[in-house]
Prior knowledge:
Elements: E1 7-8, E2 13-19, E3 24-25, E4 32-36, E5 42-62, E6 71-78, E7 83-88, H1 90-100, E8 120-121, E9 126-137, E10 151-152, E11 160-166, E12 174-194, E13 200-201, E14 206-216, E15 221-226, E16 232-242, E17 245-246, E18 250-257, E19 261-267, H2 268-279, E20 287-291, E21 308-309, E22 316-322, E23 334-344
Parallel strand pairs: 1-13, 7-14
Antiparallel strand pairs: 2-12, 3-12, 4-11, 5-9, 5-10, 5-12, 6-7, 6-11, 8-9, 14-23, 15-22, 16-17, 16-20, 16-21, 16-23, 18-19, 18-22
Amino acid sequence: xxxxxLLPFRWGSRQRKRRSRSIQAVSxxxxxxxxxxxxxxxxxxxxxxxxxxxTLSGSPAFATDGPWSIVKxxxxxxxxxxxxxxxxxxxxxxxLARQMFRGFAPDGGGNYTPNALDFAAGLTAGANPWxxxxxxxxxxxxxxxxxxxxxxxxxxxxxxxxxVRLADLGTDFAAPFTSATGITAELHQVYFSSLDPRxxxxxxxxxxxxxxxxxxxxxxxxxxxxxQRQGKLMSTVSRFIANGARSDGLDRIExxxxxxxxxxxxxxGFNSFEFGRDYSMPRPVGTFAKDYWHARESPGSGDGRDLxxxxxxxxxxxxxxxxxxxxxxxxxxxxxLGRRVLVxxxxxxxxxxxxxxx
Length: 358
């Protein structure tokens, strides 16, 4: 059949959802759990559940990044780490999930109380059943741009694995901490299958990388992270830690290309206002978002109007201007920058794409 007669993938595919293999028991904190993904369909996103009985004492409280820091790192790799799709910590997964949908947060975000089946993180003295969900995005989003960055798991050359490393210590996520028992990890795949590959035009060869950079903050004033020159920048989330706690102690956020082209210079209050307008929920303390993919009504989706092509720039910096009065500690001040980047790439993950779409 001629290329022009093939059905678009949106019309010729079927969404499917399934748990990936068996639920894995975790013997102790600090362990790494690995899931080889089922070789079915074109991967859209993943959902990870960490369940445990968490025993606390005294008057317990969350650590600075809340229950999400029960997961230290999430990685999604293709072909024995030859291509890294996702590399973020648990808190960054939470913040990115809030940025992708209006009004949604894995814990309700102060907008609503989630069902105990999908989130629970009690803070009472004694044993608390915890259910902590993590949305792990693979393609651009589950909606209008679902086919941007799908990963073809059924290609014979593709091996995709998910690595989840738990926190080393219980006090990384809550204190006073006694124990965490009955820990399990459960992974779910959301993917699309072609109804008949002979008559369907598969998506173009692209991947979306979701990665995190971290830099120490050593002084008030300007603190910059130079972003890798790869692909088209879709979104960023900054998490500012001052003296060991998430902090709003910023004057502004700046986005600068080629040293002297200041594309965005947003006062902290203005950025906070934009967050509430875009996502219909309060902005978490210490978290500052930029969504370059929000070019239509819904966040995290668009036509590429505001994407930043990093590959045509000499340098690209994301800056936090830390307020003069912000108290910094010793070795416990950080700028964590999460980013999603659209990369044009032809690989075994995208075999079978139409040559017309290259």
